[in-house]
Design brief:
Chain A: GO terms for molecular function: protein homodimerization activity; structural molecule activity. The structure holds two protein chains of two kinds. By secondary structure, chain A is of the alpha+beta class. Chain A has five helices and ten strands, in the order E-E-H-E-E-E-H-E-E-H-E-H-H-E-E. Chain A is about 40% helix and about 15% strand. In chain A, helix 1 crosses helix 2 and helix 3 packs across helix 5. The chains are: A alpha+beta, B mainly alpha.
Chain lengths: ~180, ~240
């Protein structure tokens, strides 16, 4: 079994047709399904939030069988994820893609649960603290993309569950929860 | 979506203070990491210089390392200070929350108590006392009529019951007195034989009332009575001897 770091690659990763867009509708659906799962699982385990389409990405090529995905194929698979809310284009040129193994709403719920579990109702945290502090260590929040975290917090803000506010220091904002 | 009506949590000065403390904490931690890196670098530099036999430079590097270490210690103290203050703020806000809820509780109690005035309670108690007195009076009027007719009947029933009870309790008397007599016999350890004999006679006397209960009929039963009689006597006589 091939490995990528500590990530266990599935059997079909060494299957050459897996890297070519399938012309037959049913096979392609199956192929897209497998790629979607693989991309999400890999990004989640490695905490990769942004995939650059033009850049080297370990999953997009398999040197063992000398195959790699065409640009079109990459776009097809990512578009499939985007249609489910599990990814988003970060620019108009479709060169960068934000991966959402938890959808925005799921992230929001995750944060709310985290807040409840840690007794932070009415508590104040800093954005950086949520990403790298000891409180979130070992949770999905550790190492979260800053832009994504801010968006999720704004979503919570719209629902009246949180307020983002500026402090004296320019480089870090605070968030107050009220669950 | 119409978010105008959504109530956002209010940011207080306390929240801002917490934020700035937390930011400070993070920055200090970063500074510490930086200092540690510098210390490590100076240490490495000193090692290299010693290898190159450049003692003066090595000493300077070690001096730099020493000052950085001093700084690191100070930063540690600051960090603990910041942590301490964060904990204090948290404690103070918890105290306030506890105070607020206690206050709310006491206010609620006052509000409930205000709804009933003491005069009302006094009046209520007086009213119910009056009602009770009225009830008693009525009972007395009704009761009089009843007791006049039934007085004799009640007394008669009472006497009946009394005699019944005394009759029931009578047979128990001998049964209790026998063991008590035996006990009194045991307590004095050394007794003159005359006294013990007197007691035996006493027992015989006490045993006597049992006999007439059975009608004296000349039959097998009577024969048994006679046959069991004498052995009893010998038993009674033998008992005191071992004592």
């Amino acid at each position: 079994m091939q490995r990528l770091g500590n990530f266990k690659l599935p059997q079909f990763f060494n299957f050459p047709p897996f890297f070519t867009l399938q012309p037959v509708k049913e096979t392609r659906e199956k192929q897209v399904q497998l790629w979607k799962q693989l991309l999400l699982d890999y990004c989640r385990s490695q905490k990769i939030f942004v995939i650059g389409l033009e850049e080297d990405f370990p999953l997009f090529s398999n040197p063992v069988i000398e195959r790699s995905l065409s640009h079109e194929a990459r776009e097809v698979f990512l578009s499939a994820l985007i249609s489910e809310g599990h990814a988003e284009w970060m620019d108009k040129d479709r060169r960068k893609c934000l991966m959402l193994w938890l959808r925005l709403q799921e992230w929001a719920d995750y944060i709310l649960n985290f807040v409840k579990d840690n007794g932070l109702q009415d508590g104040v945290m800093t954005i950086e603290e949520m990403r790298s502090g000891t409180e979130t260590h070992g949770t999905e929040l550790a190492g979260i993309d800053r832009g994504l975290l801010l968006r999720v917090l704004r979503l919570l803000e719209q629902k009246g569950k949180a307020t983002i506010f500026k402090g004296t220091s320019a480089d870090d904002d605070g968030v107050k929860f009220s669950v | 979506m119409g978010n105008i009506f959504v109530k956002k949590p209010k940011i207080t000065e306390v929240d801002r203070a917490i934020l700035s403390l937390k930011t400070q904490r993070r920055k200090l931690a970063q500074y510490q990491e930086q200092l540690e890196a510098v210390i490590e670098a100076e240490k490495q530099a000193a090692r290299d210089l010693i290898r190159e036999k450049r003692k003066d430079r090595a000493l300077i590097a070690l001096k730099k390392k020493k000052t950085q270490e001093e700084l690191l210690k100070k930063v540690d103290a600051w960090l603990i200070n910041v942590e301490q203050q964060l904990a204090d703020i948290e404690l103070a806000s918890k105290q306030k929350a506890v105070f607020d809820s206690l206050k709310a509780g006491s206010d609620a109690m006052k509000a409930i108590q205000n709804e009933i005035s003491l005069e009302d309670v006094q009046k209520l108690m007086d009213d119910s006392a009056e009602a009770k007195a009225y009830q008693e009076e009525m009972n007395a009027i009704l009761g009089d009529r009843l007791s006049a007719e039934d007085e004799e009947e009640v007394l008669a029933e009472f006497e009946n019951l009394e005699t019944e009870i005394t009759l029931q309790s009578m047979p128990t008397v001998p049964a209790q007195s026998v063991p008590s007599a035996q006990e009194t016999k045991r307590t004095p350890e050394v007794q003159p034989e005359a006294e013990s004999q007197a007691q035996c006679e006493e027992e015989e006397l006490l045993n006597l009332p049992d006999v007439p209960s059975g009608a004296p009929v000349l039959s097998d039963g009577a024969a048994e009575d006679i046959s069991t009689g004498p052995p009893k006597k010998t038993n009674v006589l033998e008992e005191p001897l071992p004592a």
